Input
Amino acid sequence: MKKGSARPYHHGNLRAEVLRQAEAALDTVGYQNLSLRELSRALGVSHAAPRRHFADKEALLDALACNGYERLHDKMAAVVKDQKQPFETALLKLGRAYVGFATSHVALMDLMLTRKHDEQASAELRQKAAAVYGLPIEWVARAQAAGLVVPGDPMRLALAAIAAVQGLIVISNKGKIAGIPVEVLVEEVLERIIFGLRPR
Amino acid sequence: MKKGSARPYHHGNLRAEVLRQAEAALDTVGYQNLSLRELSRALGVSHAAPRRHFADKEALLDALACNGYERLHDKMAAVVKDQKQPFETALLKLGRAYVGFATSHVALMDLMLTRKHDEQASAELRQKAAAVYGLPIEWVARAQAAGLVVPGDPMRLALAAIAAVQGLIVISNKGKIAGIPVEVLVEEVLERIIFGLRPR
DNA sequence: ACCTGAACACCGTTCAAGT
DNA sequence: ACCTGAACACCGTTCAAGT
Output
């Protein structure tokens, strides 16, 4: 193989390539240990090249998290596309989708949660994260309109369900709690919470 | 040579000093950006000195997290010391204590949660974390014995409450969700979950 | 416009040597 | 036993220069 002849000077799609490579590395090294220099090396590019597309490491992490929230939202929105399914079904499906994403993208989810609270998080990231949490809130509001859920601020009512699902993921280790898969536990927990939301 | 001096070089008990300095730095820089060299500098000690007491940076973080779980457990155990208080009261107090600790030690809590899942986390850390989660489980078991909670595995029943409290903390930003203090929300959420645990 | 390569100021970790 | 100081192999970031 001839040195230097393997790649054109202008990579052409470096931004996308860096993101792809970074996410691939995420699950093996964790987001803490992502190295811009190592990513550049893996892509056969100088260590300063990514700078053209990401102002700094934070910007790359932000873009990764943003992309994650986008995919998570798409996945969740898809399972509640059918507006005619029962409220309980929709909420369970949303929980399952969230948990499914979290367990299959552990490091990415970790990054997403961490960056969402960062002072310097982009407005885009905040907006994409809010869209995810908006889905269950919307369904609670819908259920209220149908008289299936006690009256009150839909956001505050949905919070028990959202927090529980989020908490299960945080507490869990490699998708399990005390040996039981989170996929199983999320059903139990959500059913109990749905019961607690019923008009008395 | 018999020494009257309590400190061999610079510090008598470097281990304790490093831990203290590290926790002080935690809330200003976040656990991600803790630097052993900077801690050493602040303590007026060589950058290699802490190594005598902490095998590596992970060991220091592990010790910090361990210490955190110990204090959290003490705080939670104290509020349920009175074995005669009602089940609901005890669970609410446990939730408040957990949230109170988390909101007043944001960076430390972040570290504790992260390290608990780490492959290389010490057995001591795991045990101390488990003790914390054992407290609400114990109270669910107690309530079951009194016929106040539906039958079933106490751990799985307590999980909705534990997960919800944990989730509120993770979702929250600087102790608030949508502008509402987590201290307020945790009461609402726990009351709803307690309702869901009642025998039907 | 996009990328390189040297330079700078930091890290964590190791280790022979000092006290 | 406890700590130092130099050394090593990494970082992220900056910037003049190349294509």
Observations:
- Residues 8-10, 14, 45-49, 51-53 of chain B lie near DNA strand D (CB under 10 Å from a C1').
- The interface with chain A takes residues 32, 110, 113-114, 116-117, 133, 155-156, 159-160, 162-168, 170-171, 173-174, 177-178, 180, 185, 188-189, 192-193, 195-197 of chain B (CB under 8 Å).
- The first strand of chain B starts at residue 176 and ends at 177.
- Confidence is low (pLDDT under 50) at residues 1-7 of chain B.
